[in-house]
Amino acid sequence: MSELFYDAAPNATRVAPERPRPRMYPAKPAEVTLFGTCVVDLFFPEAGLDAIRLLEREGIRVHFPDEQSCCGQPAWTSGYVNEAREVARAQLNLLDNGLPVVVPSGSCAGMFRQHYREVFAEEPDTLKRVEDLAERTFELTEFLLHVCKVDWQDLGQPTQIALHTSCSARREMNTHLHARELLGKLANVERLDHDHESECCGFGGTFSVRMPEVSGAMVLDKTRSLRESGAAEMVTADGGCLLNINGSLEKQKQTFRGRHLASFLWERVSGEVKS
Amino acid sequence: MSQRIPVKELTDSFRGRAVGALADDQLRTNFRVAMDSLMKKRADAFPDEEEREGLRELGNHIKARALSRLPDLLEQLETRLTANGVKVHWAETNEEANRIVHSIIEAKQGSQVVKGKSMVSEEMEMNDYLAERHIECLESDMGEYIVQLDGEKPSHIIMPAIHKNRFQVSRLFHDKLGVDETEDVNELIQIGRRTLRQKFLEADVGVSGVNFAIAETGTLLLVENEGNGRMSTTAPPVHIAVTGIEKVVENLRDVVPLLSLLTRSALGQPITTYVNMISGPRKADELDGPEEVHLVLLDNGRSGAFADAQLRQTLNCIRCGACMNHCPVYTRVGGHTYGEVYPGPIGKIITPHMVGLHKVPDHPSASSLCGACGEVCPVKIPIPEMLQRLRQENVKSPAEQPKVKDGGAKYSRKERAIWRFWASLNTSPVFYRLFLWGATRFGKLAPKNVGPWTENHSAPVPARRSLHDLAKAHLNQGDR
Lengths: 275, 480
Fold this sequence. Notes:
CATH superfamily of the largest domain in chain B: NagB/RpiA/CoA transferase-like
Strand content of chain A: 5-15%
Largest sheet of chain A: 4 strands, parallel
Distance between the termini of chain A: 71 Å
CATH topology of the largest domain in chain B: Rossmann fold
Distance between the termini of chain B: 72 Å
Low-confidence stretches of chain A: none
Largest sheet of chain B: 6 strands, parallel
Mean pLDDT of chain B: 94
CATH topology of the largest domain in chain A: Rossmann fold
Shape of chain B: globular
Strand order of the largest sheet of chain A: 2-1-3-4
CATH architecture of the largest domain in chain A: 3-Layer(aba) Sandwich
Strand order of the largest sheet of chain B: 1-10-7-4-2-3
Shape of chain A: globular
Structural class of chain A: alpha/beta
Strand content of chain B: 5-15%
Number of strands of chain B: 10
CATH class of the largest domain in chain A: Alpha Beta
CATH architecture of the largest domain in chain B: 3-Layer(aba) Sandwich
Number of domains of chain B: 3
Radius of gyration of chain B: 26 Å
Largest interface: A-B, 85 and 96 residues
Number of domains of chain A: 2
Oligomer: heterodimer
């Protein structure tokens, strides 16, 4: 029997990491870095700009390092570790200045906060910088709610919306709670539940092109339940989900659409209505 | 007769089978309804989040502790069971396990076997092996009985016939057993029971699985709701239990929290109707029980997972099925799409160790990594992390020495080159901005059909100005 275990690593048994304690939030800083994310950069740049405006409205100076690109998530989740690590290292280097990093996309913030320590697991020196970045990284809604402690006056017309949160971000960082609480501050906005709200929209990065049929069935169900919620529109703080959901709605020739939460929030608090 | 060639050819792959399953409305409804109900049952069984999370942590620690001493515990189990009069057999492969089972039956000149539910026996394809040797195996678990009647494999590890609704079962019973059709579930169960009752009395050998094998006392613990497990393990003169080597735990105290996690996570039950604890054959002064009890301990690739610190966590699994109940992919495609014995998220992470990645190359990719499985796993297996690791092993080149059986099954120079290109794009600010410049200006000229993405979506159109562009203009102007 013992020959079954001849190549077993000694003391190799892992236990699950401790449950994260509730995060302690710092006082509102004077300056932050915005990490725009590649999807927002190319497909929803206006949402990135609205995120900057929301932060500036709180009296914060926003830096946007020109060298930023992608957090490395697509390669990481596809199993291409070396490629992911190269790209991650480039971001780590440019974000290494001690400023808080605000990210208008839950899963990318989760990449910084949770997965960089797996990406750099074999580099003890880098891990210190990774932990430091994790400590300084905030998803946009989390930052507005808990660090800026925003107090908003809702200047928009009464409306009903549905909220979609990215699965990994919700599970890794409770982004659904942050977004709900932020939306709750808007007097004229009613958030409607939708069927199977916590279920994945089917995006999953390269999953959507490797398994298009399964992914397609998932996004079809998601768009149906969003439309049937009775909401006027869907809001989400994750670029990948938004790309997936809106792309599907357009293909179906539906008029219902999703919008990045940053743009929705900016419209409500600034009173600027964009066409 | 010429038929139109379907647009998507069904292939014998996960994706090919998924296409078939997704087109079957009845199947999809059956799974959606059943999984929704199971998710609710689990949620109701854990009303207190703190208690649930504490229990999951405890379960994780107990299994980790057992795995850290696995070789020792297995030897202790063998010693104790032997002292209790149980014969212990070791099998490294399915073939070996089947040979052992067959030789036990042959020694008794047995021809009829009645089985309690056992996924390991499914893994071994024991029924087929014995049938080829003229030994009849009858499944006595109602779900297993239904799929056996229909010549199918289980589609769920806890509820083997969950892909069928009562109308389909009624029709099946009518066709195979010649009984009247009925939509009454209780009546359907009674039909099955009447057929099975006689078989328990006639069988030469009973076969069962094991939920927990307890090293300290040499006890085999088996949970079930139908009583068929107790009948299969006590009525026939010989009982053969088959199980995987990862089912061993240290002592009975460890079983209490694990049992609670198992039954609440699986069906939302505080405890199952039957909890059998088998410690040996009938003693001289006892009136019933088998004359012989055997335990077959099967490796079948498990030691391969055990050899790796990260992948070892896969062996925490107590086979509750909660991961599949909560999986948005499983819910849509059902268990048969996976093409192997263990479906769903746990199937995706355990099967590669058993059959090798060449046989299940799409298993690691068939997930959006949404994390629902890891969130509900009662022993906290980080399933998304396991899937990500398997993806790594799957795309390794031979030179990179994959650490999982048949790793590198998805190695492709072309795909590697694409990711190399992606990495150079995203590590060179000049190159990246050049890409943005091109995409924002000429994106509208991009083809309207960009591979699989446009099957479900309109073609993605880049914005006319990137955030890099907008942010720079905004921050330089100081228009705030």
